[in-house]
Amino acid sequence: MASQIAKTTQSLTTASEMRETTKMLMQPNANWEEYLTPAPLSIAIMGELVFISSDVHSDFSINKNPPKNGFQYIKYPDSFRACLMQVCNSGWQAFNEAHKNMDQIRIHTASVPDYMKAAVKILFNATDEVIETLLPNQLNNIRDIADECVKLADGVEKKYSDVISLIQELLEACVNAEHFYGEELENVQRKLEETKLREQTAKELNERSKKAMEAMAKQLEDAQDAYKKSMDDLPSGWEMIGMDFVEGLTSTVTSLLNGVTAIVTAPAKAVSGVVNALSSKSQSPEGENVDDITLMKVFSKSGEILQYAQSIKTYVTDSEIDWKTLYDQQKKCTMTTHAQGQFERISKDLKKLSECTPRREALLLCEKSISICAELATYTPDKDWDKKKTEDMIKKIQELNNEAWGFDCTSKKSSGSPALSPKPPMMSKTESSDSGRKSASQRASENAHFRIEQSREQLKQTRESYDKCVENMEKNQKELTDILCELQNCELKEIDFQTTIKMLVKGLDAMGRVKEQWEKMVRFFQMVSNIVKTSLSKTLHNFVTTADDTKKLSYNGKLFAKDLLYNQAFQASNIASLVHMISGTYTQVSNMYLMDRVSSLGKLMAMDKGNPQFLQERQMLQESCREAQNGILQLVLKNKKEFERKTDDRMAKIEGELKAILPAAPPEETERIKEIVQAGFGEGEGDYY
């Protein structure tokens, strides 16, 4: 039964399945269409600015009170009309650059899966010497792509940043020139303050991503050190205990990699809310400041905690404890001694972290586990436990398992780690060839039921999150459409300075929204590059220098290093695949709805303002921008239906293949698992990221 469950789980967690699952889980946070919605409005606003600048009588100088060091972005401060044309020209260049660079990113990221396949083939089949020689080349190919894409995304982000800075400087110049006052002045000053806050928040997000990647590299080193130390301390003949430990440690690595990805994708919504909240600090339900890096480290321990808690529960059968299996006659100690040592190690690691609610929960789990293991260690064959003491211990073990399940669900929700995750190839190979390493069927079956329920709840919450994204986007869509109608109704004679300023403020806001996603793209590729650098430095170095002197397991230090290399390359490939999907969507939308409008804007800028076709061209640009708004909305709704279909298919496949081989669980057991999972994925914990 256990081997059949393992085989089915492996078929559900192939590389292609996990790439699709990663896309699904990250879609609400990596929803590119949400950021494309303001793009047609930006183009329409620039068209109106061209139109406004055609009025000769409205020109004036904004150079009355220039900054001490002169203007940094404005080239023609003596002509407001020329400044408006400079804004339009800069915007036109930004959209052109975005289209060209995103298409290159799409082409680059398409080749990452091939490099990943080559890397896996080398890891699986090559000798140590060949791995040492060839693997760095394949990983370097992925890193080169990431570094090139960082440059491409960075270039576009800078173009949008220049447009925003230009509009910002233009508005500040108008304020200093004292061309308007009162309520309008307050509105502009507030918008300028919000823009500066956006910029500050963007810098904080970049810094946070950098810290997360540095923390990840350190944690990966710690995982390898923990492996070596634990294997040195592991008594011979305890292969099953050793493999439980390795499985827990590799799940920590996987959670870390997913946690970094969550930190990079999650900020998008935080930034969007900055303007309304005017605060970049998130707080937990208790009101304490929550540090994302600390949370990532804490939640990365959930897999280990659950694995060791389940390893203790393995010795419980119905209402009895299997003392014969639990007590090692040769070593004169219980088999849970090693688990106690691991909980003490995790507890020590957690105490080094900053105070927060998840840390307290994890420490409490460790304390309960250490207490249970210590109590079990008092058992000796010549001194049997009475029924009451045994029942109390079984109850404690069951409660520990339930709480570990709940904590793992909270971790999965926060980090975006899939409920079903693949075992690294070397471990999977070792287990399938080692007939002595089989988890108890009861444990495997119970765990499979839990993962099915966890997958269902995770996909359900992802859908709800995506629904909210689309709902918010539709609200924004209405607001943007109203602005387009307002722009189109402006007649030349009605346009005064105040109207022009309002349009500049709206343009500043719209361009800011578009720029946010490019900032995130830069962080995506920086993360891929950093993951590969970590793989090539410490992990590959450990693989090369590890001697096969630890023979306590058929799974040795070199195989562990191989699995770490695989995990890191696999996550880098997943992120590249996600970005490939985003870049494909952008290129499609840009081709269909943006580039024709950008070209039309260029034509409008080049036209003679006295040409009768000028007004006609302006009208056509506004109408086509409104059509683009509707077209993007329809694409979003189409993608939403496709997303729902994929989540339904994924859940049906998991349930269909796993439930077919599982014995039916008692109704009360099913209900218990359901309650634990729903509580773990409940409201409140989502604020942790």
Automatic annotation (TrEMBL):
Q: Which organism is it from?
A: Coilia grayii (Gray's grenadier anchovy)
Which key words are in the record? Answer: Coiled coil
Coiled-coil ranges (or none): 185-233
Which protein is depicted? Uncharacterized protein
Which portions of the sequence form the region Disordered? 408-459
Q: Where is the composition biased (Basic and acidic residues)?
A: 446-459
